[in-house]
Amino acid sequence: MKKSKLIGVFGGVGLAALSFLFISADHLDAPSISGTTADIADFFAFQGENQDNFVFVANIQGLLPPGQPTTQAEFDESVLLEFNIDTNNDLKEDLVIQAIKRGDSMYFFGPSAPAMQGLESTIVTSTRRSVKISTKDDIQITEEDGMKFFAGPREDPFFFDLNKYNEIIDGTATAFDDPGTDTFAETNLLSVVVEFPKSMLPSGTTGVNPFAPSTPMYNVWVEAKRKQ
Amino acid sequence: MKLYKLKTLFAVVLTALLFVQCENDDDNVITQITCSDGIMNGEETDVDCGGPDCEPCGETLDFSGTYVQEDQMGRPGINIIFGTEGFKDAYNVTVPSEMQAAFQDKFEEKLLTVNPAYTTNILGLDAEEYTTLLSKDVLWLAQTGATTYSNGTEILTGRALTDDVADASLLWIFGGADGLENPELTNDGVPANDATFSTSFPYLAEPF
Asked: What is the ipTM of this complex?
């Protein structure tokens, strides 16, 4: 989908509050952040192929068409991507994994305790690891201390029939199609992927998730922070 | 390499070995040579730099400064679905511990605007309970076991690439207590991504 068309979609926002539903999972979610190098498109956290590991994925700069827009997209050296991990369910980060670009590489720090909690961060530089930023044809993966790192363009993993949805909201359709059409098909974004041993974290907290009360849970989220 | 340098190197290695031995009463010696262990080892040309595996020595990178938040995300689509005009930017710069107080009532209002017939959903949550859960916008991640946004059995234990989070959200918003209400709105007919994910790192598909 071309960006101009998406902006067209946005033009219909006034019709119904729901028009805003799912531009991507988070991409273009708010006026100030839309389309900037700090605009988070999506976030995933799951158990790795090795079940002793977790995988965190931060996707930014979504809706890149194939070709030049994808090959020329770059991470911003002034934007810190920070994975936050709350282990004791107070909704405050106890550990962070930080990622930021310098030169041709993405540098990673943590998981380690942040210097401060909240809206401001400094980079925890004690243990530094890095991976050369991949291109479409040159895939770079670093494996170090049981961790794995990737940074570069990937296909947008989000899938949803946004166009049909907007038709429903606009009153020109009353139901989704079967099959529907993935509005996000054949678009790319910039992705940062970190895999790390679960043993790097202290235990999670039980009683957090009412649908799995006896399973220890972590609260995790991703932030984009810009250097002042 | 000059002799005194070799001696220094030898002393460093010996010291490192001493550390290993002092710190370990068992056989747990450091076997993995890395660029971040504080020791010059492997093919490094100085401590943790040089050689084929580590960053070049003498390369000073500046990581100083204060970084201030511009965007954040926990669960998929939260700000987009439930954020209300005038509060979407605020949501991105409100820490999770303060989100419920700041946004739960606005989320509940929005939910009932989107689906005025909402009473409870298939998760058994009424409007206040559901929006209380969602207003604290963090992703729960299970320490052990399946990690999925919803696979029909496990609920909100993480988020995998293959999870159909759109359908899950539509079901919880429009599907009613039995999940059977508004069937034309609870399945978008796109059950999977257009590209196939890898089972191995980095998992996401290569770009088009």
From this structure: 0.89
If you search the block for the tokens 């952040």, which residue do you land on? A33
Quick: pLDDT tens for B70-106: 999 999 988 777 877 778 889 999 999 999 999 999 9
Rounded CA gap, B186 and B180, in Å?
9
Q: What pLDDT digit, counting tens, does each position of A14-69 carry?
A: 233 333 334 457 766 777 777 788 899 999 999 999 999 999 999 999 889 999 99
Specify if A210 maps to a domain: no
Residue A206 contacts residue A213 (beta carbons within 8 Å)? yes
Q: With respect to residue A208, please indicate whether it lies within any of the assigned structural domains.
A: no
Provide the CA A119 distance to its chain's centre, in angstroms: 18
Residues 6+ apart with CB under 8 A from B66: A120, A121, A122, A227, A228
Chain A contacts in chain B segment 7-26 (CB below 8 A): none
Hey, is the C-beta of A150 within 8 angstroms of any chain B C-beta?
Answer: yes
- The number of beta carbons lying within 10 Å of the beta carbon of residue A154 is 27
Asked if the Cβ–Cβ distance from A225 to B96 is below 8 Å, we say no
Contact criterion met (CB < 8 Å) for A127 and B36: yes
Give residue A76's Cα distance to chain centre: 15
Q: Which residues of B touch A45 (CB under 8 A)?
A: 139, 141, 147, 158-159
**Overall number of domains in chain A:** 1
Which structural domain range is residue A148 located in?
3-203+215-226
